[in-house]
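Bump. Still looking for LLM class F420-dependent oxidoreductase C-alpha cells.
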Amino acid sequence: MSAGVLLIPRPGAANLVDDVLDQARRAHELGVRKVWLAQQLSYDAISLAGLVGAAIPGLAVGTSVVPINPRHPLIVAQLAQTAQAATHGNFNLGLGLGARVIERPAFGSDWPRVITRLREHLTILRSVFDGGSVDFHGSEISASPTWPVQVAGGTPIPVYVAAMGPKALRVTGELADGTIPYLAGPRTIGEFIVPTIAKAAADAGRPAPQVITAVPVLVSSDIDKANAIAAQQLSFYESIPSYRNVIAREGVDSITDLAAIGSAKSVVQKLKSYQDAGATELTLSPLDRADTADHEALWSLAATL
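Sorry for the wait, here they are.
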C-alpha cells in the first residue's frame, strides 16, 4: 500500500513557503515519498508544489485539490506545466469541482452546470497536455490560443479529480487519470467509486484509473481528545452536498467515524480496509492542524505503508 501525506502550513509560521519546505524536507527524511498541498484562498497550491518538488529532488508532489472555478484551464495548464518542469516529472495535478459555500462569498459568484464545466475543463487540459495545442469551443469554456501552450519538460502530467458523484466519476473516468476522494469510506470506495470510474475509463478506452483516497488521520492515545478534534475539523464538510451524499452512502453514525484515529496499529488496520476496497493509493490528511501539532508520527507511519 503506497501512501503520501497532506502538508498543512502552520498558522503561526513566519513565512508560509519556508514552513512548507521545512515540513516537506523532514517528511522526506522520514521516508515519505509523496506530499500533497491543498488550494487555499491565501496561497497558490500549484506554485507551492512546484517549489517543493524543485527543492527536494525525488519527492513527488501534488495538489489536493485546486478547484476548477474560477480558473480557466489554460491558466491551470500553464501553472501545471511549469510545476512539472520544475519538479522534473514529479508533479501531479489534482482538481476539484468547487463548493458554492466557499465560492459565493469569496468571488461574488458561483458556477452552475458543474459537470459540463468539468468536462470542458478536462477536455481543454487533455488537448494541451497530450498534443500541445487546443481549439475548443464549449457552452461554458472555450480555448483557442494563437500562442504555444506547451512548456518544455512540462508534460506528461497525471490529472486527478476529486469526483465522488456518479456524473463526475463518469467524466473523470473518460478524461482524467483517476480520482482523489476525501471522506469516502471503504464501503463507498468498493461498492460505488471503483466500479463507476473503472467502467467509464474502460468504455472510453483509457487505462484503469487510480483511486487515491485521502483519509483524515490522527495518531493518538487520547481517543476522546482525538474525536473532539476530528469533529471540529470535519463538521464543515457536512454543509457540502457532495460530501453529505458520500457520508450517507457510507452509512456511518457520525462523520468522525470516517477518520482513522488511535494507535499507529489501529490506524494502519483502518487504512488497510481502504486498500482492500480498491484504493490504489492513500493520502494521510492530518486532523490536528494547530501550530503545536507534531506530524512526525503520521509521516513515519506513511513511510511504512
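The radius of gyration is 19 Å.

Edit: fixed formatting.
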